[in-house]
Design a protein that fits this description.
The protein is an alpha/beta fold. 41% of the residues lie in helices and 23% in strands. The protein contains 11 helices and 7 strands. The chain has a 7-stranded mixed beta sheet, with helices on both faces. The longest helix is centred in the last third of the chain and has 16 residues. It is globular and about 60 Å long. The termini are close together. 44% of the residues are buried.
Length: 294
């Protein structure tokens, strides 16, 4: 990776606002199979809203630069969603290069194609399986992926596929939220633990973010760099917006994991703490970068 790839010392100086037993269905867990959900457009709106946030846009731009995109490069956007990153990267590679965005959701790919049609950029979208890519070995100069490994059944297999289709010297940058770093404090440990436990259970691979450096090394990637961003929250409404607290707890009721009475108790406690200025929440996202055949 380039020398600009963040080091551990860099991480200690950088803090940005970023935005258990049974798997709990929620909008967050639903990204494993968007097309089979009751309302796929819910996921479209969620992704669109998240990518519109200025903090997310600035952080993503910084991560795109870590790929060192050059004019004429071929870049893979793995788990492209609505294609926000694909379009941004396509502007960097120019007309002599191209970006291919893949996603397992036909709904996401349909919307990504719709957005790209007016942009007239060298970007192409395909429905695909990240763990079984249809591209030949050594097809791409770089790969970007964000909020994808937390949803796939085998992050290791997915990364091995990415490495397979990279050229020697190809770069990978992956961004993931670490749900095992999620904390909520409202001066009620019982409520705090229950809410955090349920939110973590909504994610297939809640700790993949902090596991990625080892996964990268195991896949043969070298010159690893890691950066961390921590979001801090003091209001329930903002926490609910990015962590989907109410929706996740409502799904827990439908799944008979908690009762309606427990749902009301949890939500009322969170709102009351927020109104009293006694709510704090935080979670850390990790960006990991590495290179093939260095």
């Amino acid at each position: 990776m380039p020398a600009s790839c963040p080091t551990t010392d860099d991480n200690n100086r950088r803090h940005h606002r970023f935005q258990d037993s049974r798997h709990l269905p929620s909008i967050l867990s639903g990204f494993t199979d968007v097309d089979q959900s009751e309302d796929p457009d819910t996921y479209v709106r969620y992704v669109a809203h998240a990518n519109m946030q200025s903090e997310v846009q600035s952080s993503k731009s910084e991560l795109h630069r870590l790929l060192r995109p050059q004019a004429g490069d071929h870049i893979l956007d793995a788990g492209c969603g609505l294609g926000f990153d694909s379009l941004a990267l396509a502007r960097l590679v120019g007309d002599d290069g191209y970006v291919i965005g893949i996603d397992s959701s036909r709904t996401m790919i349909r919307e990504a194609k719709r957005s790209a049609s007016a942009a007239r950029l060298p970007v192409h979208y395909h429905v695909g399986d990240l763990q079984n890519l249809s591209y030949s070995a050594r097809s791409f100069d770089a790969c970007f992926t964000a909020s994808t490994f937390m949803h796939v059944s085998s992050p290791t297999n997915a990364l091995l596929e990415i490495v397979r289709v990279l050229k020697c010297g190809g770069r990978v940058v992956a961004l993931e939220c670490d749900w095992e770093t999620l904390v909520i404090s409202i001066d009620n440990r019982k409520i705090e633990r229950k809410v955090v436990r349920l939110l973590r259970r909504a994610i297939r691979n809640p700790g993949i973010a902090h596991q990625l450096p080892v996964v990268f090394a195991t896949a043969g990637l070298r010159n690893l760099g890691v950066a961390a961003w921590t979001v801090t929250i003091f209001e329930y409404e903002f926490a609910n917006q990015i962590w989907q607290i109410q929706q996740t707890l409502e799904r827990a009721v439908k799944s008979h994991i908690i009762t309606m009475a427990e749902l009301n108790e949890l939500l009322n406690a969170l709102r009351a703490a927020s109104n009293a200025g006694k709510l704090f929440g935080a979670a850390t996202a990790f960006a990991v970068c590495g290179a093939k055949c260095v």
